[in-house]
DNA sequence: ATGAAAGCGCTAACAG
DNA sequence: CTGTTAGCGCTTTCAT
């Protein structure tokens, strides 16, 4: 009797067949069905036939909830990103998802909108779902209650973008300080002396702080006077960054180059400088950070520190899965991966010339 | 006895406390613990105290796997996007995640990289996880085996970006045809006559086809000769689009305006035209589709059909949750939501002048 | 090679 | 207000 594509209803509700109905249909025990599912070789060839037929007929699909409950594992990883509006996190997530799927892991996603209190809630949710591990970017990796929870609960996790300084926590990132140092040194080599940093709120991103340190180091090492960084609040979607750049109208108030803590900021700055009647790179050179793909599509192309976002995600997932699966074996290895960055040279930066 | 922050180990393995240990610790039955968790008012004030104390002491966290197995629901929705490299999908996902969290739903994510066979696998995975519903963008909403599976299994789903023509399937999108029509009509009003469409592979996106129909309609209605659309393969990351635009060197071969089926393509085209020595908008006007935020940051700003991606995601989630929760009540309402689009006017388009 | 049975964590009758 | 119990779907001994 062939019942393929025929659903079973009870009181209007569709009944999703379980291993139990399959067993009944095939005339075997549920254990046998389970065996076929998990270790096909352990059942005889003709029972296998019967069971497969029943599975087909009923449209059976294993229920991971039951499996996970039993196994105490979920083959699911949680991901916590600050936002998906910033391409870097989307790219990273893309890398995570791809690598996860290759390994038959699923991905549960949460976003925090850069709110530190939401980090905790996000992780709580993931823990309630019993994810096997978490990939996340936090506000401050060196003082994070959220990470402490993860440690205490001994849930494997890997930080992305965060580069913990004082603590030894598994992470995948570029060397933010060194990358910023390289970018600023590049500007200095081109003759720039008045270089200012434009950043989001420092308290919302430890990476921005590390990049600022790289800026400072480059300036000091070349005997240049660091300028006060410009800190703009988030949700400066419109030209609110505008008000922070007003001073630039006065040439003497204006840096010759602006080092931005991320590309979104860099692009906003370019637009707002333009609105102020200033030209990039002629009046101000712009250096970004992240290396988002779109930076290369514009004119002038954006100079930026390129970090391999998709790779970061992929490596984080691989590291996490390794940790999860070794955890069974006992010994945990904490690995901090620093991936190489590149200073991408684009048209938004030009050598400094005094007679401009 | 206070045991907060003290983990319980058995053979090196951490034991995550269950409702059972909490009950033991508090000296009540597991039912009481469950009640406190789900309906705090139904337990006496002092038992509540004891139980809460036990929960605190043990660091208990409810296990959704058990709960879900029992309930037959997961309070989780699955999302299937073609890719996260395209900002529109990331934005949409952002909208979904935000709205989901507000309603205490979790999000499980999968990507297909525009491979139709991966759509099926993605949905299978989500179904195995017993998600309560699915939000997805498919290659072709009118002939999708994946959607048929969803229908047959009676899993609530909502399409995003897809705008089914022949079938009546729940969806949230703009009116692609009308939007394209509006964009092209705008170009025509500006005096353009040789308008060509630049698209990704049509077979990979029903939206692109609908937009092409809008293009055709606008051209025909204004008695203009439609040009053969240019179809570029995906993963034209570098300047492969280049080869498709070579003909543009010859002014007589060149349209005065290019209507692109998405913004990524539009930006790539702008770059490649530039590389060809052509100026935008002076030599060729460019109209995009999607209205990605970055389009407004560049110079010239990108003219584009703006669709409210984050809203699309949010509304899809809301619709989905409504469906999920009404499903209990029986009657299903299939709703197709068409959200308003806007032709965003930017500097990449200028009126056509013959003496250029 | 197969079956019987226990139990993962939880909720919902049901009984008191 | 609280306890007892069954069972959601599955895997895994332990027998046979």
UniProtKB/TrEMBL annotation, chains A, B:
Organism of derivation: Collimonas arenae
This protein's UniProt keywords: DNA-binding, Transcription, Transcription regulation
GO molecular function, one term: transcription cis-regulatory region binding
Highest taxon of source: Bacteria
Occurrences of domain HTH lacI-type (ranges): 17-71
Protein name: Transcriptional regulator
One Pfam short name: LacI
